[in-house]
């Protein structure tokens, strides 16, 4: 595959701690909202837990070797707040920091740049008990945690993500309860938007004080389409676009929230200087993208004015109609974002990938469907670059098959197959495809 990607374009792959590490509680790690969420019967589709998952906490060398084998420019991993500060305040857990310091050194020795995420949904249970992201004080506590991590790793780590997918934390964690912490507040969840963005801004300040060169967060974005060309469906799509995309992008890029009050939604809990801190807080704009969302006006009267429906004519991933495959939607999203924000900073695609049904036991996997998905989305990125969007990096989710939150071990996203009974890792066909793509691009750069 030949892509018109610019010289210097970077390739990455990603994982998250709770999904791959196992060893919950090891080295004095604390309890997180996901430890709480998975306990009730039926909470996880296959009844599994995230232990041992890929057992990566005990075997980080295996993951680093796979990252290096791909020729990655950067490896995105997460540092769980609940391991570092078990109660979400106070001194750092030195043993846990030692572990991530070792991981950083392993990556640097393998010539792979470490790109940590400070919050991939692992809030300490004690912080949630105090209100979690509904509580403004959580932003200050998160900034203190970021400063502790930066004090230990900032001499070797210059590039940071603060938060992963605040939209999903708000919409699925606090509004519908599909993810931890499992709250069902509907539009009462909206204050969590502001408190997460404020937490990011405070963490960015702490990281830069410790010498960080590049700081951003990762928004989950989707290209929203009305099902029908009617005023009702266009209005429904507009509302959904506001609460999934624009309520996160506009504060960061323009320093203001969209006019959600005109939709009958509550005002955001903004205090003096908040928006100035948020607007100046990113060095790049991070986007996680998986699929478009098709929306129609809600059939039943109620507080939610839209219904999410299957995208007509689109093939789907292992999640079925919930995750349609439309690579061009990523191109359209990126071009539209640049149109809305002419001064858009450099863009990093922080996650893009797909799950498909695959064998549980170890062995070769010819995942051409995943190769087609990734190739299509990389082509969409190349088209957006041609249209003037400064995309600098693309990240595959995920390096490894992992524990997929409420779906347990039923969805496989990895470039590497993991046998969860034995821990054996087997690179799939997509691993070889991505490795060769990276090598060709770097070879072109060398010339």
TrEMBL record:
GO molecular function terms listed in the Swiss-Prot or TrEMBL record: beta-glucosidase activity
GO biological process, one term: cellulose catabolic process
One Pfam family in the UniProt entry: Glyco_hydro_1
Highest taxon of the lineage: Bacteria
Name of the protein this chain belongs to: Beta-glucosidase
Documented EC number(s): 3.2.1.21
Family: Belongs to the glycosyl hydrolase 1 family.
Spans traversing the lipid bilayer: none
Broadest EC class assigned to this enzyme: hydrolase
Gene3D superfamilies recorded: Glycosidases (3.20.20.80)
The reaction(s) this protein catalyses: Hydrolysis of terminal, non-reducing beta-D-glucosyl residues with release of beta-D-glucose
GO cellular component: cytosol
